[in-house]
Amino acid sequence: MLRPARGIPRHFMEVITRMDVIESHGARIPILGFGTMTLKEDVCVRLVEASLKLGYRHLDTAQMYGNEREVGSGMRGSGLKREDIFLTTKVWFTRLASGDFERSVDESLERLALPWVDLLMIHWPNTQVPLSESIASLCKMKKAGLTRHIGVANFNIALLKTVVEEIKAPIACNQVEYHVMLDQTPLRKYLASKAIPLVAYCPLAQGRAAGDPTLAAIGRKHGASAAQVALKWLLDQDGVAAIPKASRSESQRANLDAQHIGLDDEDRQAIAALPKDRRCVNPGFAPVWD
Ligand SMILES: NC(=O)c1ccc[n+]([C@@H]2O[C@H](COP(=O)([O-])OP(=O)(O)OC[C@H]3O[C@@H](n4cnc5c(N)ncnc54)[C@H](OP(=O)(O)O)[C@@H]3O)[C@@H](O)[C@H]2O)c1
To answer: Among the atoms of ligand 1, which is closest to the Cα of residue 207?
Structure first.
């Protein structure tokens, strides 16, 4: 359980103390995080601050999102102690070469106005830079104290095998797209076999889950929304964390409350029958998916 921060009203403390964490290579990753992609400027500052005041303790940003300055500002605005927030940032795939990698991390920390992050990730693999080189840079950042933990995003099983079995890097997670409309069984099985968590991005299929009639029907049974059902389906899975983005405070709160819904076998069967090939993020530089 996470330690509640001083100055947080009692009902928020209940939310915080009930937030589960996944442990991996010494990292304690809160299973529900707040995604910040597309949030910019003052809106981003306000939403990050609001999310922390509501009870979120895990924030996801990236160099590529162009909002590290605002995320850092929202963190300070929350009044929470730095140690009570789990912050992830990522190095963009064009900056993985040795030298540039380090400069990229320095720039991220300068924008965040922080001496370290909790989790530093390679945002996407890049075939132009040997994995041995980019993972060595990632490990160097950890050794230098610029990040507490290291991870990867958008890695397929073949790439993970190189990182975990050949290079033997202490990867705390793989962040990939995962939701009710996308099957990730082979990747999940591999990650589970190595006790590596999967952090699910686009956990609401970029909002599509909120409009799904099957999920809405399940939600009606539990007094919940379709989006909450989609999130709880993820959070019920061992070793899975989720980082939904929400611009509206009702949605921020609803996503936090989703932790407390109880789905049953009938619900899970209905969710299993949904189409599982609806990938939202698939740029030209993506690896071959499993
Ligand atoms: N590593 C990577 O390559 C990668 C790629 C993509 C995303 N990510 C990370 O994952 C995070 C989440 O992914 P995402 O933002 O693309 O998609 P998402 O979280 O699946 O969906 C966000 C959409 O869902 C809506 N929503 C949120 N909560 C809702 C609720 N309770 N009811 C109804 N609608 C709701 C939001 O609406 P409003 O905003 O209008 O409230 C928004 O349109 C990103 O912000 C980013 O941090 C990482």
So the answer is: 24
Is residue 204 within 6 Å of ligand 1 at its C-beta?
A: yes
| Residues in CB range of 60: below 8 A, 6 or more apart | 33, 34, 35, 36, 37, 88, 175, 199, 201, 243
What's the one-letter identity of residue 14? Answer: E
Q: What percent of the chain has pLDDT over 90?
A: 93
Average pLDDT over residues 52-69: 98
Which among 122, 229, 140 is positioned nearest to 176, based on CA atoms?
A: 122
Taking residues 45-62, what's their average pLDDT? 98
Ligand 1 within 6 A of CB of 153: yes
- The pLDDT, as a whole number, for residue 172 is 98
- Greatest alpha-carbon span in the chain: 55
Tokens of 122: 């390679």
Mean pLDDT of the chain: 94
Of all atoms in ligand 1, which is nearest to the CA of residue 121?
1
> Per-residue confidence at 181, pLDDT binned at 50, 70, 90?
very high
Nearest to 254 by CA among 219, 230, 228: 228
The SS3 assignment for 102 reads helix
Residue labelled with tokens 């993985």: 96
Q: Does residue 56 carry a catalytic annotation? A: no
Centre of ligand 1 from the C-alpha of residue 271, in Å: 19
Per-residue confidence (pLDDT) for residue 18, from 0 to 100: 53
